[in-house]
Amino acid sequence: MEGGYLVGALILLGLASATDPSPLQDFCVAINDAKNGVFVNGKLCKDPKLATPEDFFFSGLNIPGNTSNQVGSTVTPAVVPGLNTLGISLVRIDYAPYHGLNPPHTHPRASEILVVVEGTLYAGFVTSNPDNRLFAKVLYPGDVFVFPVGMIHFQLNVGSGNAVAFAALSSQDPGVITIANAVFGSDPGINPDAVAKAFQLDKNMVRQLQSRFWSGNNCRV
Ligand SMILES: *[C@@H]1O[C@H](CO)[C@@H](O)[C@H](O)[C@H]1NC(C)=O
Questions:
Q1: Binding site for oxalate: residue ranges?
Q2: % of the chain beyond a pLDDT of 90
Q3: Is the CB of 52 under 6 A from ligand 1?
Q4: Is ligand 1 within 6 A of the CB of residue 220?
Q5: Domains along the chain?
Q6: What is the spatial distance between Cα 86 and Cα 95, in angstroms, rounded to a whole number?
Q7: Is residue 68 in contact with ligand 1, taking CB distance under 6 Å?
Q8: pLDDT at 221 > cutoff 50
Q9: 221: burial class by Cβ within 10 Å (0-12, 13-18, 19+)?
Q10: Which of 26, 74, 109, 220 could tie 171 with a disulfide, CB 3.0–4.6 Å?
Q11: What is the greatest pairwise CA distance in the chain?
């Protein structure tokens, strides 16, 4: 009997300390009809017997990304089929001289570790409410900075030449929410009253911002 209680207590303890598995998509609406269902948390897997070294290989992260866009930066992912379900990914980030910016954004599903290989970056992240502390540093080649999962973060090229960084992320599909794009460039637009009040802006200013083009800096491969 006592043993039964002990097992019960251990099960409860286990439940109390467990967390939900991290989702790999923005949402997953439950349906009963399997015919109209989709696969979640990964892609269909190749028969392991048919796997080749090419499945674990990617070439081209030595090639600079094109930074001729609104923000002056571009993110190029390493697209590797064998990464499926392994919970990691890798990108190259290029920054144009004089304030090429990887704008404030969050990855809802991944922490990030970034290493600078060329140039000078001002990089940082902001903690959650109520403190909203900024952790920021100027980074030089060889310097590494960590952005914890979910925190708003950014990198700005503060040098006069190109800057290049590589970043590893703790999900095969980290997700990206670029703050300005999400707030001012949503489709359809958020009611300007809501945005004006939240950002202490004039409603006309909000309308003006909403009418602008909000481009991303993610290289489509
Ligand atoms: C870079 O992108 C811009 C804008 O899309 C384009 O006009 C330009 O030709 C591209 N440069 C190269 C080298 O591909």
A1: 102, 107, 112
A2: 71
A3: no
A4: no
A5: 17-51 (no CATH), 73-211 (2.60.120.10)
A6: 28
A7: yes
A8: no
A9: exposed
A10: 109
A11: 74
